[in-house]
Amino acid sequence: MTSTFFLDGQEVPFTPGQTVLQAALQAGRYIPHLCWHPEVGPHGSCRLCTVVISGKPFSSCTQPAMAGQHVDCDTPELQALRRAALQMLFVEGNHYCPSCEKSGACRLQATAYFLGMQDNHFPQQFPRRARDASHPGIILDRDRCIRCERCVRASRFLDGKNVFGVTQRGIRTSLEVNTPSGLLGESALAVHDRAVALCPTGALLPKEGAWEVPIGARRYDRATVAEADLREYAMTEAGGLQEVHHG
Amino acid sequence: MLPNPMPPARDFLEPLLDRAGRSPHALLQLLIAVQHHYHFVPSEAMEVLAAELGVTPLRVKGVVSFYSFLSDTFQGEVVVHVSDNITDRMQGSRELAAHLCDLLDVPLGQVREDGRVSVHFTSDIGLGDQGPAALVNYLPVTRLTRERIEALARLINARTPLSAWPPEFFRVESIIRRSDVIFRRPVPPGAGLRASLERGGEILPAWEEDLSPSDARRHHLDKGGAETLKELYRSELRGRGGAGFKTAIKWESVRSAKGGGRYVLCNADEGEPGTFKDRVLLAEFPDMVFEGMTICGHVVGSKKGVLYLRQEYVYLLPHLEAVLARRREAGLLGRDILGSGLEFDIEIHLGAGAYICGMESAMIKSIEGRRGIPRQRWPLPVHQGLYKRPTVVNNVETFAKAAVVSQRGGAWFAAIGTPQSTGTKLFAVSGDVERPGVYEYPWGVTVREVLRDCGGLDALGVQLGGPSGTLLNAEAFDRTVCFEDLPSVGTLMVFGPGRDLFEAARNFAAFFRHESCGLCTPCRVGTTLLENYVSKFARGFGSPVDLEEMRGIARTLRTMSHCGLGQTASLHLIDSFERFPAVWEARMGTRDFIPAFDLDGALEEARGLTGRTDQEAHLTPAEVRA
């Protein structure tokens, strides 16, 4: 059974149980998002996918699609708010794009380009966060962590390992590793785990193969985040591509 | 230094684990027990809990580090938490805390070398009408003065056990200044419940309806519940926690929800700074609250109630447990209430210091033993609440009012107040007034009337509904408090003439930064940015550009945040800009922009490394500007 709702005035079909974000992406309509991923579902934390329905804001990744409803998404006001939320993510951590191995394959960076973000705008917070290079194959760089908890969910639900969790609260919320020492090296995390692949930034980065794909030929060098996502999700939907190539 | 020898955590926890059935849901309650016993959560206790409850050690750490009253390091034999609300500060709490630290010879937030004591600040502890106040080993000490602080320091230094301290230090008063229909004639224990049960009519002899005796009883209970629900509709009662949702609609949603094992949850988290009406209700009229919960159980078909009591009110626990025991004895709780066959009982869960847990879905997570992070919007708690069961969540005052509605009928209740705000409302009044305390008024009272009654007519401004509410100036004092005009949880913090409202803004901004749960971007980062901007003004570096920046951040917070905390966290600032512009004008160091980057602050590390503390090692504000 298929019904439809209106996204920025255009009809979008959906099946009951789908969220606004899912239905939109399936219809080839892009809504920016960082914490949602088809394999681990919504988290409702990055807030970039916020849309306005009947005058009220909702995160589209958690909002069930309903027949006939009018959803505002691509409005100047909402794009500006998304940009502001994105800038907040940039200033609360330490993101040095020019020297970061993930540059060009980074969803955070690509989304910033997509939303036309020109600068960080807000005062930089320069937090001091511990880095963890104890794992032979993966580096955990908390400077780049945006607390989307994709790795937490992927490790638990896709890899069946439960390697990650969060501690503290508020601005001090911290991604931690579920080992006695708290070090990644002691964990069962493997380089090809979904937890690593789903990291939208360079917080979880494989050590081997750095710079293998040259700058200019990386995932978001060749396509915008919208194009890359829509292509990937369409293939995932078709059961074709499961492995996501992240640079 | 740790107390020596340390009793092993396993021995302490074993009987508690048995009693809790080793359920992972008991994690937070057990951690609180450990914290109270050891004054921290030793790593051994964390290991035992993880192993015995079958959860990961990281999950235990995640919970310990989330709640303000749990600590993974020893906090001393005596742990002092000084309430840090603006009303406490206005009464000199900051100076008193500094004096206490001096007398105890311990820096704020650190444990004294001999392991005797530590002093901390904490978010408002709900004693604004008898502050400044503090918690000492989790028990409130009220009406702090210089003399009382000096007495405290002497007792702590002399290692006098708390049990030998003067009992008046720990006296918490229920200051009721104005009683209206409900305070004046509270529901006698059982009266509301009996009325609800009697609405089921006579229990028909089984043969008459061709029903088994148990079916006849069930039919009778169901009919009573349906009739009480109608009374609730007639009463137009709306939730007293702030949002004002119609109580009858919420109850009916759970009544008609699919699935058994429903829960009735009472929100006694009362974390909104300046609010203490629920404390007085729980201290003086607990029967009305428990009765309302039991009636709710009758209406929605629930057998289990949970009252979530904020950590700051743990001193009320023995009293509340005694009331519950008395009600069980009187047949008002248990397996066969008043011989009707109705089954319902109530247990009390403790919070551990997190304002966010006043948000219903965060409270549910907290009761389930987790970090108090608000859930996604859907499914609603009425469909999948506590342990994924249909759940009613109401405020303490709402349940008390529901008991009144059941006893006296919906029409009687609806005749009080205004058309869209029926009944009465409890107000917690504090700050620069002659008579702080709790006031009961019908909805629709003007701010001015309240100010007249409490002796605060000369007020400069009033923060109505706590920091998440609205800041009013004198022009707004003739407005009415009700859902039609100024909805409110019923909190008035009054700022008298001569008060610098900048200090309130600063206090509230710090409060929201401290209490943000950290889940969503706008709230986690936005509350921090806002506090930093307020600090910039405090340092004299603010400019009109910065005000514009704050407005922009406020807009992002309001629209993009996941839950009510972030959505309301900036309102006090916007109100302050609009209604008290002079406060911000006065703090502007310049009309031009000055970068927020703190040049002098950036030298701190270098000063630390070189051991410099002299003036020459600092930049002057003029140098910073140049």
Could you explain how this protein is built, in words?
The complex is a heterodimer of chains A (247) and B (626). Chain A contains 7 helices and 10 strands. With 247 residues, chain A is an alpha+beta fold. Chain A has a 5-stranded mixed beta sheet, covered by helices on one side. In chain A, strands 6-7-10 form a 3-stranded antiparallel beta sheet. Chain A has a two-stranded antiparallel sheet with strand order 8-9. Chain A starts with a strand and ends in a 10-residue tail after the last helix. The model of chain A is unreliable at 238-247 (pLDDT under 50). Chain B contains 28 helices and 17 strands. With 626 residues, chain B is of the alpha/beta class. Chain A binds chain B through residues 42, 44-48, 50, 57-59, 62-64, 81, 84-85, 88-89, 91-92, 122-125, 146-147, 162, 164-173, 176-178, 180, and chain B through 56-59, 61-62, 65-66, 354, 371, 376-378, 513-522, 524-529, 532, 549, 552-553, 555-556, 559-562, 595-597.
List keywords for this structure.
heterodimer, A: 247 residues, alpha+beta, 5-stranded mixed sheet, 3-stranded antiparallel sheet, 25% helix, disordered C terminus, B: 626 residues, alpha/beta, 6-stranded mixed sheet, 44% helix, 13% strand
Low-confidence runs of at least 5 consecutive residues of chain A: 238-247
- General shape of chain B: globular
The largest β sheet of chain A comes out as: 5 strands, mixed
Compute the separation of the termini of chain B in Å: 48 Å
- By secondary-structure content and strand pairing, the structural class of chain B works out as alpha/beta
* Separate helix tally of chain B: 28
Instruction: Please list the strands of the largest sheet of chain B in the order they lie side by side.
Output: 5-14-13-17-15-16
Largest sheet of chain B: 6 strands, mixed
Approximate strand percentage of chain A: 15-25%
Oligomer state of the chains in this structure: heterodimer
The pair of chains with the biggest contact is:
A-B, 41 and 42 residues
